[in-house]
Structure formats: C-alpha cells, structure tokens
Amino acid sequence: MKPRIASQYIPLLATAVVLATLYGAGCASFHNFFSLRVLVNLFGGNAVLGVAAVGATLVILAGGIDLSVGSVIGFTSILIATLVEEHHVNPVLAILLGLVLGALFGAAMGCLIQWFELPPFLVTLAGMFLARGLAFVVRPDNLGIHHAFYAERINRDFALPLNSQVSWPFAATCFVTLFVGALWLAHYTRFGRYIYALGGDETSARLMGLPVARTKILTYTVAGLCSALAGVVYTFTTQNGDPAACVGKELEAIAAVVIGGTLLSGGVGYMAGTAMGVLILGLIQTLITYQNLNSWWTVIVVGLLLLLFILLQNVVSSLSGRLDSPGRHG
C-alpha cells in the first residue's frame, strides 16, 4: 500500500513548496539574490509582521479573529516614543508598559467575546478603532526616538555580526525567539492542545470539561501581547513612533497565517506554516523590488496567492470529509 500524506499536512506542504519555488526563482533570476544580506533582510524586514502573525495564528487556531493588530502596533509605538522622548521614561520601562497594556487590551476583548458571547469580528473591529483613536490621542503625529538605548544598544550591541558587512538585527532575533516559543506553546503544551480543541469544536471541548472560557480569554491576551511586541519591534526597526503605523497589518498577518496552511475555521494549522507564510510575503515583495515593478504588484500577487490557498483549504476539507464518512470504512 502506497504511503499517503494526511490531508491536514497538504496545505503546509504546499506552503513549503511555494516558499522553495519563490526562493529558487529569485536565486536563478538574480545573481546576488542568493546572499547572506538578502536572507538577513528577509527576516529583519518582516520581523514586525512575523511577531504579529504569531498572535494571529493562536487566535485563528482557537476559532477566532483579531482585527486590532495594526492599531495596537501603532498605539504601542507612539506610546513608547512619547514616554521616552517627551517624558524621559527609561526605554525598558516604557516597553514593559506597552507590553502590559497590549496584553490587557487583548484580555478585555477576550472577556467581551466570552462573557457576552459577542462575535470576535465585531469586538476586535471595535478594538481596532479604539486602539487607533487612543494612538492619536497620545500624539497626533509621528515622533523619532533618539535615546542611546535605541541608537547604541538595539542597533549596535544587540546586533549579531555575521561577517564584516552583514549583521543579524535584534528585530530578527525577537521574531525568531518568539516563533520558537510559540511553536513550543502551540504544539507541546496543554494550553496549546486546548487551543486546538477550542478551534475544532467549542461545544465538544466544553463537554469534555476543558477550560473553554479561560483558554479563549488567555488566547486573546497572548495575541494582544504579540501585537504590542510587534509595536516594540516596529520602534526597533524604525526608531520612530507613529500613531498611523501599520494600517492593514492585521490583514497581512491573517494572509500569512492562511498561506501558512492554518484553516480560518480554526482547529487545524501549524506555527511553522505561519513562519513560512511570513517569509513568502517577504520574498514576493523582495522579488518585485528586484524586478523594479510598482509596489502594488505585491498586493496583487498576495491576493491571488491567498485566494489559491483558500481554494486549496476548501478542497482539502472536502476530501477530508469524504474520507472520514461512514461509507469509506469497512
């Protein structure tokens, strides 16, 4: 009997094939594409998206959605910049405050969704407007961060030199570290199993005695923390706070999650797929830049790719249903 790939692995395998194909096409088309600098820029330039996508993955796996990601990033970045530059708060304390507020913001949305049985789409949509409005209340325009912690520690001391010309940025370290932690959390902890069970079937999870309410609220808390951390990473990469930053970043994060093979209905997906989805979006943007094409082509290609993966998920779900039907057994 020939070995058969389990249906839930097909989207993940498709993501890996797309990633390898895009990278191979770039290396074949441009002589300097296969270089350490391009690889480092791929991780460093997409660190904000990668951190945000980790939180989005957990929420979607649990059967929810979070539309407040971009707004929380903007709020966190301008809050940190204002505290550091105008109120002379220690950057570490400012960062910790931003992370705590992000986690509390996510927890508040999770409580509203759980306790009042409100749709996650509407609650997080309201959260998106609220966080963006608060960002402009903190400061209506962008503000550069000139503290030595950013100029010296983040960009010099915390960067890892790979050779005489290329250094691994601290933002990329944040992305990779968070990804490894989230990979362990989602796939090797009880909390991760609860998330998958909740996304698979909330009613069944409740009947099995799983802590549905606690899991849902904690999932949104972690997602809010990830969004705030993405805001912190944004300040690392730009040394700037901007209340209008990352508009639509939540849609990019969701796109990376879906392209990574996670089902929008919840319960099926892999954190590794999200990481590959982030790199795919980065590769598309890099290839279009190398081709000297208009940046709008990035949006077009991502849209087509997203549609392709949604169709693939539909096909896989349909095949899984047929294979699991009673008529296929016995």
Explain how this protein is built.
- This protein has 14 helices and 4 strands.
- The chain has 330 residues and is mainly alpha-helical.
- The protein has a single domain (7-318), classed as ABC transporter involved in vitamin B12 uptake, BtuC, CATH 1.10.3470.
- It has a two-stranded antiparallel ribbon.
Computed CA radius of gyration, to the nearest angstrom: 20 Å
**Highest CATH level, the class:** Mainly Alpha
| Shape descriptor | globular
What spatial order of strands do you see in the largest sheet? 1-4
Number of strands: 4
Percent in strands: under 5%
Number of distinct helices: 14
Mean pLDDT: 92
Sheet with the most strands? Answer: 2 strands, antiparallel
Instruction: List the domain count as a whole number.
Output: 1
What is this structure, in a nutshell?
With 330 residues, the protein is an all-alpha fold. It contains 14 helices and four strands.
Summarize this structure as a short list of keywords or feature phrases.
330 residues; mainly alpha; globular; single chain; two-stranded antiparallel sheet; ABC transporter involved in vitamin B12 uptake, BtuC
Write the layout of secondary structure elements.
Elements: H1 10-29, H2 36-44, H3 47-61, H4 69-85, H5 91-115, H6 120-138, E1 143-144, H7 148-157, E2 160-161, E3 167-168, H8 170-188, H9 190-200, H10 202-207, H11 212-238, E4 240-241, H12 249-259, H13 271-290, H14 296-323
Antiparallel strand pairs: 1-4, 2-3
